[in-house]
């Protein structure tokens, strides 16, 4: 895991991944390459003369069923699982060399990325890590859907979902400062309902989906169980959130609360936050590591309580 949260990190040596894009169905080869301190996370299209797209809020493009980046008409799609793994492990600087337009879906979670990165190891760099320390609330609302970020210690998340059966309503609270990401968040897979498949395929989506890359549901049951966690669905939404908020360019230092949000609202919060410079400051780590246990509830009608 992270060697020293006070300092930026990259990886010790390159690591490669290959697979299919969830929505495009294209075959993809991708290599993660160590990058200098202060350079951030940058996608590099090796099939387009090394064209680079920094992973930040200025380059957010399509965000309906996945979070995509675009610069000068060049696209990188479905970035959220990889970016989530980088935040979860504390990787600040990285070149992501990719030979097609979509990050490979692998098993539908962030676990393969976590395992690959930990296999080559993390490297501490000399530059002190800066966090986006939240100074006052920033919120995005869309009817009954909601997401907000507030001042707080660590990087805590309180996420609620409400889907049709057999998922129902669920909630999860966690803090990345507890070091629980690799074990409790990264393995949670993306999911979808079988009955939505014709509609999504007509939209040109999920061309690469399989029972090995997503949880498939009917209105009665999970088709390709067993689940990795009883509450795997809400854990995956937290995974997505962490990846989407990575587009702020640095790790959040504060408290995030989400109610039935999704990629579009996650990235809308990033853009609103970046526009409102009075709501945050860049700060070095303000306190030592703390140990906060992950709390999960599978109670169907859980009511959130906030301090």
Give a structural overview:
Zn(2+) binds at residues 81, 236, 240. The model is unreliable at 289-293 and 296-307 (pLDDT under 50). The chain has helices at 80-89, 111-120, 181-185, 197-202, 232-245, 263-275, and strands at residues 7-11, 15-20, 27-34, 41-45, 51-54, 69-71, 74-76, 94-98, 122-128, 130-134, 138-142, 145-150, 155-163, 168-175, 191-193, 215-217, 252-259, 280-284, 295-297. The radius of gyration is 18 Å and the shape is globular. Strands 10, 11, 12, 13, 14, 17, 18 and 19 form an eight-stranded mixed beta sheet that branches. The chain has two domains: 7-129, Ribosomal Protein S5, domain 2; 131-297, lpxc deacetylase, domain 1 (2-Layer Sandwich), CATH 3.30.1700. The protein has 307 residues and is an alpha+beta fold. It has six helices and 19 strands.
